[in-house]
Design goal:
single chain, about 190 residues, 5-stranded parallel β-sheet
Length: about 190
């Protein structure tokens, strides 16, 4: 099987984490999640850790330099024949350009999966996740959606202009979404 570099993008609460896990279970590909890393850093009692926590708790996106640092930190040691799933990287236009240029420089293919979900559905999902997981950033869903429209939509446009973007209806059952992702990536179906 060819080497794959998959990047999931979408609104907060659209199911990126869930779908990356399902794809990883199907393929064995490693997941590299910016959100998990930012939450881990935010638990450190350091100047950067405290600032990351403050930004996360406010529902804002982290600075591009930090997202880019984490992206390169995880990309650099990857063997050229190892497929990988990136979750939550490239959320600003500058970061999207950084991802595209970095991968092109090492001749690594990129497929961006956009999970398309309405704002109304996001608000419902995040409220439910808030009850189950209690994530601090879920308390500020309106701010997170504002950040999405201000920063991530232009990043998505950049990906659409310069990379292979796969549009997936993210309002279906999780199994159907996973099936659509696998089909779009030309992977064997779940039933096989």
């Amino acid at each position: 099987m060819e080497t794959r570099t998959i990047l999931f993008i979408g609104k907060p609460g659209c199911g990126k984490g869930d779908q990356t896990k399902l794809l990883s279970e199907k393929t064995g590909w490693k997941i590299l999640s910016s959100g998990d890393n930012f939450r881990s850093i935010s638990s450190e009692n350091t100047p950067i850790g405290r600032r990351v926590k403050e930004v996360n708790d406010a529902g804002l996106l982290q600075p591009s330099w930090l997202a880019e640092y984490l992206f390169i930190k995880y990309l650099s040691p990857l063997p050229e024949n190892e497929s990988v799933i990136f979750d939550g990287f490239g959320r600003k236009a500058r970061e999207a350009e950084f991802v595209i240029e970095s991968l092109a420089w090492i001749n690594r293919p990129l497929s961006v999966i956009h999970l398309d979900v309405s704002d109304e559905e996001i608000i419902k999902r995040v409220a439910l996740r808030k009850e189950i997981e209690g994530r601090a950033d879920d308390k500020v869903v309106e701010e997170r959606l504002k950040e999405y429209y201000e920063y991530t939509e232009p990043a998505l446009k950049k990906f659409r202009d310069e990379a292979h973007v796969i549009e997936i209806n993210g309002e279906q059952a999780r199994e159907k979404i996973a099936e659509d992702v696998q089909k779009a990536l030309n992977l064997p179906s779940t039933g096989s």
